[in-house]
Amino acid sequence: MRHLLDIVDLSEQEIYSLIEKAQDIMQRPTKYQDVLRYRKVATLFFEPSTRTRLSFEAAAMELGANVIGFQSAAASSTAKGESIGDTVRTVSNYADIIVMRHPVEGAPYAAVLDSEVPIINAGDGGHNHPTQTLADLLTIYRRKETFDGLTIGVCGDLKYGRTVHSLLRAMSRYQNVRFVCISPKELRLPEYMTEFLRDKRIDYTETVDMEEYMSELDVLYMTRVQRERFDDKNEYERLKDSYILSESKLTTARADMCILHPLPRVNEIAKEVDMDKRAAYFEQVKNGKYMRMALILFLLDHRNDPTQFVSLDHTADRCRNPKCILQFESALPGLTRTIGTKKRCYYCESLI
Ligand code: NCD
Predict the structure, then answer these.
(1) 145 domain residue, yes or no
(2) Which of 43, 127, 129, 133 to mutate to test the pocket of ligand 1 (most atoms within 8 A of CB)?
(3) Is residue 81 situated within a structural domain?
(4) Distance set, CA 23 to CA 174, 287, 290 (Å)
(5) Cα–Cα distance, 148 to 250 (Å, whole number)
(6) 262 and 120 in a common domain
(7) From ligand 1's centre to the CA of 31, what distance in Å?
(8) Beta bridge partners of residue 107, listed in sequence order
(9) Which residues, including other chains, have CB under 8 Å from residue 142's CB and lie 6 or more apart?
(10) Are 139 and 264 in a shared domain?
């Protein structure tokens, strides 16, 4: 069985196949409308969502599947203290595949330890969001016709912005890609991401100035400051409007630059930019549904494959990241995996 926890669980070749499949579904939707008849997709959302949940549900329905699930932890037995493992073990009896979003880092990584069906990570705290990356990749591919040689600016909350983490990992596998990471000092990329980029010898620059490299960018990926992840609300208030993209800030940008945003937007992109032909964030929304359709088909096709666990080690030295699922579920085993040269928490990638 295959799961999708991290975008690099899919090879570059598999990503190209998903892109081809998504484009075929776009062109010939009726061919796919009954392929998952009598199948069920479960959407377990422990955190708010508009696009991710509704696009997964629409994707399932357009393949002929039925959808079950819940939209908040309060509406599930989590509110009674049930563990993630018991929840997914239960839902494995009702659904063929589980889509899970959770506010705690590593929650879907815990889920796969007990699930009997494929798990899709639909966002785990400030960690990863691989299916948003699938939407981003299809959008970039349709606009740029390649992933190689691109200079990608990511702007906003790079610390808690899980979509950025997954996008950087995905894009770092292509040739001659360069990243410009634009954020306030307080919201720079987390240690496990900068370590990843250094380890892979990726060309990246960090800056606080949104306009400094504007003329060099092929893609500008805007993000909102992630209010719900801040421990200090005053800090959020201070940083929330750090970057606001307007037409005047785009004067030096290339005519074929592509502006992306995973949405929801708060203030980071002025409404006037929506009319600019470089704006691609609503295309991204549309593309997300088709990539999710392709992904559901792919994982169900591979449900008899052996599960590929990276090599995990038990440790008595439990992760201390306060946002890691290990702090919330004491029955979970302390596990580590080696990434690059360092031993990290299996669930959230913090250093152990
Ligand atoms: C993103 C998320 O949930 O991480 N939204 C989404 O899934 N499209 C981005 C965000 O919430 O800022």
Answers:
(1) yes
(2) 129
(3) yes
(4) 21, 9, 7
(5) 24
(6) no
(7) 30
(8) none
(9) 283, 287
(10) yes
Number of domain units in the chain: 3
CB 10: neighbour CB atoms within 10 A? 21
Residue 52 is predicted with a pLDDT of: 97
Q: Nearest 5°: phi and psi at 151?
A: -105, 120
Residues 69, 197 within the same domain: no
pLDDT at position 71, please?
94
- Mutational test site, ligand 1, from 163, 282, 287, max ligand atoms within 8 Å of CB: 163
Rounded CA gap, 52 and 121, in Å? 11
Residue by residue, DSSP assigns 223-291 as ----GGG-S-HHHHHHHTTS--B-GGGGTTS-TT-EEE--S--SSSB-GGGGGSTTB-HHHHHHHHHHH
For residue 264, say if its preceding peptide bond is cis, omega within 30 degrees of 0. yes
Whether residues 40 and 123 fall in one domain:
yes
175 and 261 housed in the same domain: yes
- 49 and 118: one domain? yes
Same domain, 168 and 118: no
304-332 residue pLDDT tens: 887 766 789 999 889 999 999 999 999 99
pLDDT for the residue 309 = 64
Q: 162: domain CATH number? A: 3.40.50.1370
| Under-50 pLDDT residues of the chain | none
Mutate to test the pocket of ligand 1, among 56, 137, 263 (most ligand atoms within 8 A of CB): 263
What lines the ligand 1 site, CB under 6 Å?
A: 51-52, 123, 129, 132, 162-163, 223-224, 226, 262-264
User: What are the pLDDT digits (tens) for 72-127?
Assistant: 998 888 888 999 999 999 999 999 999 999 999 999 999 999 999 999 999 999 99
Segments forming the whole domain that contains residue 228? 130-284
Are residues 134 and 259 located together in one domain of the fold? yes
User: Is residue 306 one of the residues assigned to a domain?
Assistant: no
Angle, helices 281-301 vs 12-27, to 10°: value is 110
Supply the mean pLDDT for the chain: 96
351 located within any domain = no
Reported in sequence order, the residue ranges of the chain that DSSP labels E, i.e. its strands, are: 40-45, 66-70, 97-102, 119-124, 151-155, 178-182, 203-207, 219-222, 258-260, 313-314, 335-339, 342-345
